Amino acid sequence: MALALLVESERRRGCKLMVAEEHVASLIGMSPSWLRKYLRNSREVSDPRIPLLLRIRTAYDDLCERIERENDAREARHRTLKVQLDAIAQSIDPKARSYLAGKKLK
Fold it and tell me: Which pLDDT value is given to residue 68?
């Protein structure tokens, strides 16, 4: 499951499927063909051993940390934008401000 999520994350970043698989395979120290076979439940590959499982876990943990950092940065940008918009709203005509206060922004 974690391997599929890692590949999907790479695809969301704009990679084509094969490129995403190659990148994830390099992260865990396996060949892209092994990864493809494993993800497709091929009988040609055996279940991962402990060292590989640890590398998969490390790659997954790194992905989670990157997502958290990206979310934190996005939230900081949103807070900054809200402060800027609030400052603009305070500087406009009181009639327009009261009109805008009655409208819900989406």
Answer: 97
